[in-house]
Amino acid sequence: MEHKTKQESTSKMQKMLNLDYRRDDDIWLTNTQTLRKLIGVLGIALPVLLYVFLWITAEHTVTLESISHYYYTRANPIFIIVVSVLAIFLMVYKGREPIDFYVSFTAGLFAILLLLFPTDNIAITCCDADAAYSVTYIQDSIWRVRFHYIAAAIFLLSLNYMSLFIFTRSNKPKGERTKEKRQRNTIYKFCGILMLSALVVVLLGLLEVIPADIYTTNHLTFWMETVAIECFGISWLVKGETIFTD
Predict the structure, then answer these.
(1) How many angstroms separate the CA atoms of 79 and 60, rounded?
(2) Spatial contact of 235 and 40, defined as CB atoms under 8 Å apart
(3) Alpha-carbon distance 32 to 224, whole Å?
(4) Spatial distance between the Cα atoms of 226 and 46, rounded to a whole number of angstroms
(5) What value, to the nearest 5°, has the Cα angle with vertex 70 and ends 190 and 105?
(6) Contact (Cβ atoms closer than 8 angstroms) between residue 133 and residue 125
(7) What is the pTM of this model?
(8) Measuring CA to CA, which residue among 238, 206, 234, 237 is closest to residue 220?
């Protein structure tokens, strides 16, 4: 009985990852559905992993100003590895039409660029005692920070476009689409609108339309980025037919 249960568990895992041992020339990671699922899982996990790791390693329990600021902490390896892997997956994702590849490749490219051009420092100086959880300090550069914002915006807007306009496509007229497809499209649109709303809040904060004390004190950049990334992760999981499959 135990052996049968293990076999069933293994079979489910193989099915989820699209592992086909009958084909010698097939690489499981290149399967489109597998890429979609992995991108979704990595996106959803990123903010959680960063917060938990910094809490465990530095006992820092307050969220940072933004997700990008974890670059300067002990959670730096997680930030770089997860975003880099996401970028690679997005850059090799082909989709079904050329626009799928171009938009996904753009998202992956700018994910790499936001790593190469980090945001502003957490600490005021190197080894700042008031920011003991910061382990890295880079010479200030307003141009680097501005480009980081641009790269992050293009990255998230590209993913937003995919959720709203690419994932919702169908080769069937509206009346002939399955119930599950209509449900998936509702999720894509909801996630896309929520992502866009989160980015608008960040823009309003940067333009100081939202009072700086309210925006900064509540770490709205971090929370809005988290909302956007979680929504993009959910969209990709649904697109990978993890849920609401036909």
Answers:
(1) 16
(2) yes
(3) 29
(4) 9
(5) 50
(6) no
(7) 0.84
(8) 206
Query: Would you give per-residue pLDDT tens digits along the chain (246 residues)?
Result: 555 555 555 566 556 555 555 555 555 555 777 888 889 999 999 999 999 999 999 888 999 999 999 999 999 999 999 999 999 999 988 888 889 999 999 999 999 999 999 999 887 766 666 667 788 888 889 999 999 999 999 999 999 999 999 999 887 777 777 888 888 999 999 999 999 999 999 999 989 899 988 998 899 999 999 999 999 999 999 988 777 776
Q: Write the DSSP assignment of 83-97 as a string of letters.
A: HHHHHHHHHH---SS
| Residue 27, both tokens | 């690489």
DSSP H helical ranges for 17-164: 32-58, 76-92, 98-116, 142-161
